[in-house]
Each structure stands twice: as structure tokens, then as C-alpha cells.
Amino acid sequence: MLILGIESASTQVGCAIGGHEGVLASIHSSRGKRHAEVLTPQIDIVRRQARIELDEISLVAVDIGPGLYTGLRVGIASALAIAYARSLPMIGVPSLDLLAFPMRFTNKLIVTVMDARRGEVFSACYRTVPGGVQRVRDFHVGTPDELAIELMAAGEDLLLVGDGALRHRDCFRGLGKVELADHGFAFPTASSLVQLAHAQALREQFVQPSEIRPLYLRLPDVDIGWSTRDGRVSG
Description:
Layout (H helix, E strand, L loop, with lengths): L1 E6 L4 E8 L2 E9 L4 H16 L8 E5 L5 H18 L3 E4 L1 H6 L8 E7 L5 E9 L2 E11 L1 H11 L3 E4 L1 H5 L1 H4 L5 E3 L9 H13 L29 E3 L1
Helix pairs in contact: 1-2
């Protein structure tokens, strides 16, 4: 099984290809708001790096958000176009799950914090479990100060990851037992997307393209709400 993963929920856009053998190739770039211009050439580059043809892809995975409105729509639209054209199933993975997954070896409470602009952040909390992480506090949008107050009440050792944590680090410095993941982990990656999608595909947790919905947490970004479920994110 070969999976094409498309990630575009942040200022970074990327794609990756992988399957049973792990991630075969991936590419990411940050070009401002030029997601639509960058993504199509990226898919061709990563296909050639993996030495495969697009007709060998058997599943399309996509970051469904939350994230920046325009980038998120570009990624989902591109993923849907490929899936519909080739009659392929899909898997959607939330961006905050993708941020948490590389932190799965810590014993601290993982807090994913994405910059939501407008002085707000998207956030969620996770604990490590065998093979991955488990979401223990669902997705939320609010100010960094509101998140800091919530985390202070938790009174735990914390690992904060994401561009929102780095941008608003001053809000979290007074919390005590807090570690900030470095900039190399600041954005969701297509490599994590392929790994998580592969684990879900083995459990046949894929859907048809018509069932993919972007996850928006804030109006007026969108007039369609999508309620999410707590769930284990395993590799």
C-alpha cells in the first residue's frame, strides 16, 4: 500500500509518500501564501524521489485542520481532486495530532499549540501510549493567556510544541515545569501524516472522498462545523 500525504494547514506546505516500508520521500517548503502554486510541483517531485507513478498510489491522506483557512482549503481540494480522479479512498488526520506524534517518546503532558492568527492559538493535549499518543483534551481555539491559565491549573510537567508555542512563549514562561520543543517541530509534517494514515489504513479506517470535511474551530472562517472525537493516534 502506497500513501500520498498532503499537508498544508500552516504556513508550511508539504507532501510525502510512504507505506509498509515507512516514508519513502517527503518535501516541505514555506513560501508565504503560495500554497496553490507550490503544492502541485511538490507532488511531482516527491513522486519522482520515491520512484513511483501516481497510478501506484492506493490511498490519499490529508491534514484536515484546524489551520490557516486558505492553505487548508488548497491542500484538501488538491487531495480530493486526486482521490476522485483515481477513485481512491482517503484518510483525514487533524493537524494537532500531527504535531503531537513526533513527541510520543516524552513522559510529559504534550500540548500542541498552533498559531491561529488574530491573537489566538489552536490547541489540544495528549499523553503518550504504546505506539503513539492519546488525545486527552480536544481541540480548542482561544488566546495564549487563556491557555496558560488552563495549563497552570493542570500543575503538570508540560511539553509545548508548535509555532503558536514559540510565537507566544512569553505567555508560558511563568508556568514552571514547561519545555518548548524547538523550531524543527513547529509545524505539522507530511511524514507524520503518512505514518498515522498508514496505521489507520491497516485498521481499514479510511473514508470516501465525499466524507472528508475540514476542521474549522472559528467563525467567520467557515459556516460548516465539524465535531471531532477523542481517539488514539498510533503509529
